[in-house]
Design goal:
Blueprint: E1 4-18, E2 24-35, E3 38-44, H1 45-51, E4 59-62, E5 67-70, E6 72-74, H2 86-93, H3 98-103, H4 108-117, H5 120-136, E7 139-145, H6 152-168, E8 172-180, H7 189-207, E9 212-216, H8 224-236, E10 240-245, H9 253-260, E11 264-267, H10 273-282, E12 285-288, H11 290-296, H12 303-308, E13 314-315, H13 328-339, H14 343-350, H15 352-357, E14 375-378, H16 385-388, E15 395-400, E16 403-407
The structure holds N-(iminomethyl)-L-glutamic acid and fe (iii) ion.
Length: 410
């Protein structure tokens, strides 16, 4: 028998997802009914509550004066780590460059040392509170990459902890293998690339947790050719490719992502018109990470150029020790103010766009009938308040599969 899990009624607006004629498909004075964890119906309150009376629902939520939006899909994070790199934030403000810090054994390599020393339980204890924070800020699906192990044992441990977090925490966690995140100290990129392919990838495939394979295609990290070798080997093992592309220089990662039909190309601060065209043509979702540019003091990616060509983008947090924000609301505010996206475009990029970047547009990121009832309720009458109230959390209540997982019910 179907169970009427939840009815949210009298919302001042419900955002369904991207519209066909308007930037957003949305209803005013609206309700949404959830059966068996999925959206059963959405529309004007009277119409919906006639068919699905709120009093019959396990959870009835009066959302008057509130905006109801799809839960955020944060499609790019390195949220599992250990140690503290806040001093690097201060050093960068003093003029040090991210890549200088990495070249001196800091940055990613410093986190690698801390992760190798941490036990699985310590790693899990680090991750779960971050997931709580993400959830409290409206995120219902998050991608987390490995890549702070750089050896088979620690990469597998990271993926295992990511899976345990997915099992223990209500929000959905998607695992990406990123053995090619940096070149370990005392090793050269070419021989490490061989080890990622020959040692790490077969073990990761055997373990069966990772869904995607990502690589840091960047000057002084992995070349286009090395990145191609890793991603092609990943594909042979059934892992879908993603690429960190054109973050510090324009090296060719975007063209590689297009050529391989990657699910996403991420960062893209230095992508040009040819790159944008190639990604659009190949159906690769550009994932823009304005928090990273903000924390590096770098120029933002040219979101307008992607959007004005008729394309779509995702916006994500890139939460990691170098970009320490779990908040999709903040990323959306930066997308508006720093990348000139409209609040509607930024909201779509943080929900439907993120779902596309994770191959989940068929079930997450919009509130159409049949989709997962992953919902965030904004403590204000319009979705515009998410970026308008920058630096504070506007999310009051979060539902995963229709069940309240954060915040109060009114
Ligand atoms: O996406 N650019 C490479 N990787 C991360 C940073 C990871 C770190 O600095 O620990 C990123 O920004
Ligand atoms: Fe990243």
């Amino acid at each position: 028998m179907t169970e009427l899990t939840t009815v949210i009624h009298d919302a001042s607006e419900i955002v369904v997802g991207p519209g066909t004629d308007a930037p957003l498909e949305r209803y005013e004075n609206a309700a949404i009914a959830v059966t068996d964890g999925r959206v059963a119906a959405i529309g004007p309150t009277e119409e919906i509550t006639d068919e699905y009376p709120a009093e019959n629902a396990t959870h009835a939520i009066d959302a008057s004066g509130r905006s109801v939006i799809p839960g955020f899909v944060d499609s790019h994070t390195h949220g599992l780590f250990a140690g503290d790199r806040s001093d690097e934030f201060a050093a960068k403000l003093g003029g040090e460059q991210y890549q200088e810090i990495l070249a001196e054994g800091g940055g990613i390599l410093r986190t690698v040392n801390a992760v190798r020393e941490a036990s699985d339980d310590e790693l899990l204890a680090n991750l779960l509170p971050h997931l709580d924070t993400m959830c409290a800020h409206g995120t219902t699906t998050v991608e987390i990459k490995s890549g702070y192990g750089l050896d088979t044992e620690t990469e597998l441990r990271m993926l295992d902890v990511i899976q345990r977090a997915d099992e223990q925490h209500p929000i959905d966690v998607v695992a990406t293998f990123m053995g090619a995140h940096a070149v370990p100290e005392d090793e050269d990129a070419e021989s490490y690339t061989d080890r990622v392919i020959d040692e790490q990838l077969p073990a990761v495939a055997e373990q069966g947790i990772a869904e995607f394979c990502d690589v840091f295609c960047e000057e002084d990290v992995f070349s286009v050719e090395q990145s191609r070798r890793v991603l092609e080997a990943g594909m042979e093992h059934g892992l879908t490719p993603k690429v960190h592309a054109e973050e510090f220089v324009r090296l060719g990662g975007a063209q590689l992502a297009a050529e391989l039909g990657a699910t996403s190309a991420d960062h893209l601060l230095h992508a040009n018109a040819d790159d944008r065209a190639a990604l659009a043509e190949a159906g690769v979702t550009p994932v823009l990470l304005p928090g990273t540019a903000f924390s590096l003091g770098a120029d933002y990616a040219d979101a307008r150029a992607f959007l004005d060509d008729g394309g779509s983008v995702a916006v994500a947090t890139d939460f990691n020790p170098n970009c320490h924000s779990q908040s999709m609301g903040f990323a959306i505010a930066l997308a508006c103010v720093g990348m000139e996206m409209t609040p509607a475009e930024a909201l779509v990029a943080g929900t439907h766009g993120g779902a596309r970047a994770l191959d989940r547009a068929g079930e997450a990121g919009t509130l159409r009938e049949g989709m997962l009832a992953d919902v965030a309720i904004v403590d204000a009458p319009s979705h515009i308040h998410v970026p308008y109230n920058f630096g504070v959390n506007t999310i009051e209540t979060v539902l995963k599969d229709g069940e309240p997982v954060h915040g109060g019910q009114r």
